[in-house]
Amino acid sequence: MTDRAPWITYRPELKVLDCTIRDGGLMNNHQFDNDVVKAVYETCVEAGLDMMEIGYKMSRKQADPKKFGPFKFSDEESIRKIVGDNKTSLRLAVMADAGKCDYETDILPKEQSVIDVVRVATYVNQIPMAVDMIHDAHEKGYEVWCNIMAISIVQEPDLQQALEVLATTPASVVVVVDSFGALYREQVDYLVKLYQSALKGTGKEVGIHAHNNQQLAFANTIEAIILGCNRVDATMMGLGRGAGNCNMELLIGFLRNPKFRIRPIYKLLQDHMLKLREKMEWGPVVPYNISGLLNQHPRAAMAVRASTGPDKDDFVSFYDKCVSEV
What we know:
Strand order of the largest sheet: 1-2-3-4-5-6-7-8
Oligomer: single chain
Order of helices and strands: EHHEHEHEHEHEHEHEHHHHH
Helix content: 25-40%
CATH class of the largest domain: Alpha Beta
Number of domains: 2
Largest sheet: 8 strands, parallel, barrel
Structural class: alpha/beta
CATH architecture of the largest domain: Alpha-Beta Barrel
């Protein structure tokens, strides 16, 4: 790389993870047809992506299997219906939320599973449980990542302590997660450097998972990459909770790595994602802009957008209600 035009080349150690089915499933209770899940999987393979997060490991004690699709739970049988033995270079991941996963029993030993990576998602107050989950998955033979959620509302001393603890665990990646789509470039800069400093000397990588409430997911992902993040999340057509995520088609176009192929992604968008858009809404519509601006969880915006009444497009009332809760 030169100092004059580093953007015309690429960083081979940077890895891309697709989380379309896992994050996008938050918009439809993971009620995807298997042909859609298989199409995303095959697209990830054809596009040369490094990893696909296929779903959650959710406790059946907390979520009714009659109300949710199979990738809310991601049992081995459901995954293998899509990927078989996954004799490809694409690595498979699942997400296990602290407090919502029966990880001792639902995450099998690696030799019994087609999964490669367990991503432990945690709020900062759940770090002790997350550490136990990280050790459990690592001892079972998996690579383990940790996503600290909702960091835009975490006090810095708490975040620093959490990072110090995670630095001592076998987690190989710690991900900066902009859960509310509230962060701006300057904050992404600060947080990425904070994570890098806390993990310095451990060999761990820093990742980025951005939401698009303020239409900054792609820009913030680029900023994190520039600063040295080597583990990057994105979704097809930005499909994800609420405002969605960094668009995979934009990210792959930006990265310039010749191992990635963008045409299969466009075909997936054309053949499947446009049909999904007819059934459900996602993307940075105004209520999500408002929740991101106010650094609030998007659940209220999701609820109003899911309604069929006159309040759905009453942006002023929604804004007033959100402001009153600040």
